[in-house]
Amino acid sequence: MHKKTNISVFVLFVSLTFILFAGLTVAGCTAKETATSNKEETNAVPVQVEKARKGILDAKAGIAGKFEPYEKVAIAPKVNGKIVEISVSLGQKVNKGDVLFTLDQVDLQNAVKQAEAQLQVAQANLKKAEIGSSQGLDQAKNNLAQSESAVAQAKQAYNDAKINLERTKKLFEAGAVPSVELEQKETAFKNAEIALKNAEIAYENAKDSVHYAGQKTDIEVAKASVAQAKVNLDNAREQLANATVRAPISGIVASVNGAPGQMSSMQSSVITIVKLDPIVVKGYLSENEVTSIKTGAAVKVEVPTVGKTIDAKVTAISPVMDQQLKAYPFEIEIPNADGKWKADMVVNVIFQGTNGQLENSIIVSRKAVFEEEGKKYVYKIENNKAVKVEVKTGEETSEEIVILEGIKENDTIVVKGQTLLTDGAEVTIQKQA
């Protein structure tokens, strides 16, 4: 009985050992197959994809712009002074020429009176110079006439003395007169010659006097003084007029930075006026966008704060890039007679091309396209593998780009995960968040 029991225990032990071995073998095979499967899944690159579509590309430029005044003028006085009165208030409409504010005028009025007095003095000096010049010229002419008469008399005396000397010489040679008489005639001739020369010198001096008197030098100086006094008076009157500051344009008072009793200077603005009709949208175009957008192009201006969209046209595009933003400024003018649109409102500008819309084309997300060695590529999915395809691109926006060559409508294109891909790599497609 004891022997049978031992045999039964042995048989049971062998059976259990066989079952355990078989189980371990099966478990080992299953684990190996699972690891192999996980390894294959790990080698596949996860990507996100989109379908290439055919449609019309809306070109969004500058992403955002903003409303700005058509014209903005910060007004400072042209003279320093104390503000006496401010005639306008914030938000008030004003017309060109309306009084904005006035400065204290006492000192300026005194400056005008002083300039007027200086002009009167200068005019009196001119009159005096004109009278003196006239009298001086008459006297000089009288002196010239007298000198001319003296020269004539001296010439006559000289000729008479010369004739007498020649006659006396002949008589002396004939022994008819003594030498004393000859000497007297020679002396008389020399005296007549000296008198003639003196008379001629006096005549030339008289002529010079008439010439200088005719130049009226004193009168010219006095006239210059009068002209300068008039300029000073005009300046003083202009400064007085500048104490009343008027609006240089029609518009709306955007800011008031002064108050009565406050000192103002030419370096600080007191009133700012803006013109908001039309209002101007200002934004920037990228280098790619500026080549396809022209002045006059149709646009839609979205105003997110009020949920409105405005149809408009581009009125100006700068041909010069803003070096800080690396983009080209553009402007759009929008009528604003009712004042609905305010300066600094943020807007979104949608360009529709020069003909209202861009060409019907194959369009993909801009992030699908990448560049290598000057060429552009996308990854297209075929049979769960990524195929690297060279493409030729066209118009583009900040979000989408036109594909001219390389792919066709409904091709599946990788838009996320390209950096991990190589040509022919296995992929797993993930849903976009």
TrEMBL record:
Q: Where is the Multidrug resistance protein MdtA-like barrel-sandwich hybrid domain?
A: 71-264
Transmembrane region positions? none
GO MF, any single term: efflux transmembrane transporter activity
Domain of life of the organism in this record?
A: Bacteria
CusB-like beta-barrel domain location is 286-353
Family membership: Belongs to the membrane fusion protein (MFP) (TC 8.A.1) family.
Entry-linked PANTHER family = MULTIDRUG RESISTANCE PROTEIN MDTA, SLR1207 PROTEIN
Is Coiled coil included in the keywords of this UniProt record? yes
Coiled-coil region list: 105-246
Q: Cross-referenced InterPro entries, in alphabetical order?
A: Beta-barrel_RND_2, MdtA-like_BSH, RND_pump_MFP, YknX-like_C
Q: Which organism is it from?
A: Calidifontibacillus erzurumensis
**Alphabetically ordered keywords of this record:** Coiled coil
Query: What is any one of the record's Gene Ontology cellular component terms?
Result: efflux pump complex
- The name this protein goes by in its record: Efflux RND transporter periplasmic adaptor subunit
Q: Which Gene3D superfamilies match?
A: 2.40.30.170, 2.40.420.20, 2.40.50.100, Helix hairpin bin (1.10.287.470)
Identify the residues that the record assigns to the YknX-like C-terminal permuted SH3-like domain, covering every copy: 366-429
